[in-house]
Specification:
The chain has helices at residues 4-16, 30-42, 47-54, 58-62, 69-81, 83-92, 106-123, 129-153, 166-186, 195-207. By secondary structure, the protein is mostly helical. The chain has a single domain, classed as Orthogonal Bundle (Hypothetical protein af1432). Helix 3 (47-54) packs across helix 8 and helix 5 packs across helix 6. The longest helix is centred in the last third of the chain and has 25 residues, at 129-153. The N and C termini lie far apart (43 Å).
Length: 210
């Protein structure tokens, strides 16, 4: 069952991401957080995992705007929602020590983007079952959102991303899918998530896009 702690996280996430929109759209980013939390809940995730889903992008996307910066936000999450939630959020933050800003040529920016994504893929093998479920839910919703956007606007969707490349996006999602599935299979049966299968289907459809 979900308790008042989930309610508090819901309100905190809504306030934290209030001014953020999804890439290339005016859609409130909060919708993505709700979708990821719903996937986690439907997959049998715990309340801590559902809260981690609501807050999984908090440090990465809003840490620089939070009073006191990332570390203050980390401390707040740990104090208000517990160490299990804080650990999930940390595990889902993929830009620690790696700049997301454009600081060079397109080739240099692409190289940095690929480095960041590869580092995240490499870290999946060490994720806890709780963090893996949230990660898988995040990637499922992102991949399915790309498919939905492609249906609406076609190949223009790729211009929303850093490298503007369909191949780069599908390659990264394929690597994520493989790593998530491999880590999931290594868990004991009672800890596994069903979400890697859904991600695999979405990635397969992404590879078929023009």
């Amino acid at each position: 069952m979900l308790t008042e702690k989930f309610d508090a996280a819901l309100l905190f996430a809504a306030d934290l991401h209030r001014k953020q929109a999804r890439k290339g759209t005016g859609t409130p980013y909060f919708g993505h957080l709700l979708a990821v939390a719903a996937l986690v809940i439907d997959d049998g995730g715990s309340e801590d995992e559902a809260i981690g889903a609501l807050l999984h992008d908090s440090i990465e996307d809003q840490g620089q705007h939070y009073p006191g910066g990332r570390e203050a936000l980390r401390t707040y999450i740990r104090e208000q929602f517990g160490s299990a939630v804080a650990d999930i959020v940390d595990a889902c933050t993929d830009d620690e020590g790696l700049s997301k800003e454009s600081m060079g040529t397109p080739q240099e920016d692409r190289a940095r983007w690929l480095e960041r994504k590869q580092a995240y893929v490499d870290g999946i093998g060490h994720k806890t079952a709780q963090a893996l479920r949230v990660t898988a839910a995040d990637k499922v919703h992102n991949a399915e959102s790309i498919l939905d956007a492609y249906s609406a606007i076609g190949p223009e969707i790729w211009n929303r991303f850093r490298t503007r490349s369909r191949a780069d996006q599908t390659d990264v999602y394929e690597a994520l899918s493989r790593a998530i599935d491999s880590r999931n299979r290594a868990l004991v049966a009672c800890e596994r998530t069903r979400l890697p299968e859904r991600l695999l289907r979405a990635v397969g459809l992404m590879k078929e896009l023009a």
